[in-house]
Known about the structure:
Radius of gyration: 17 Å
CATH architecture: Clam
Low-confidence stretches: 1-31
Mean pLDDT: 84
Helix content: 10-25%
Shape: globular
Order of helices and strands: HHEEEEEEHHEEEEEE
CATH topology: outer membrane lipoprotein receptor (LolB), chain A
Strand order of the largest sheet: 7-8-9-10-11-1-2-3-4-5-6-12
Distance between the termini: 31 Å
Structural class: mainly beta
Number of strands: 12
Largest sheet: 12 strands, mixed
Amino acid sequence: MVRASLAVFDLKSVMLSALLLVGASSSAPAQAQDPAAIVERAARAYRGLTSFHADFRQVIADSMVGTFESRGRLAQAGAGYLAMRFTDPAGDAIVMDGEHIWVYTPSTTPGQVIRLVIPSDPTFGPNVLAWILTNPADRYRSRYIRSDAVAGRTMDVIGMTPVDASLPFTEAVVWLDRFDFLPRKLEIRERGGQQRTLTFLGVEVNRRSSSDLFRFDVPRDVRIVDQ
């Protein structure tokens, strides 16, 4: 497997960076779709969630260093609790425990874990979906691209251009499920030029989450680097 790591995130994109939703189906033809209304519907569903769990696949393409692939399991419960635990590269993790963000990448920077205070604005934590679905009408111009499918489910594909210059990307494309409105895929072009693609599989929402899931235990002989 390609050795892909969270270290491809620079520290700013870790702080800004890393996934959510429910609803009803729509069968209107693509030309009749209102992209702003579709995104707002997804945002309402996202706000109503108590938890989100999914397998994820991530591809980061960088013209300077190449393409990096990774995968793992993601869980979120509220604005302050999130865990991205990687199975490839095994052991890498981003964890939000309600107070801190822990960024652990033994695949590329062994022997240390970065610890950051969770920012007051949840859209500037590691939850990529919060970037997209928090106040979308104020932060983006949206356009309808096409109808598509992910894992056999019908999607509305929406392009989103930020009008808020503080967001860490210049363009996003999101695949929104027509039945439950949950994002199943994101393509994000970051300000540094990287393109990040996240695909979510086996999505489960509103299930009970163990508090242990959002705890990071510092491994022996690993030093904490505060940022």
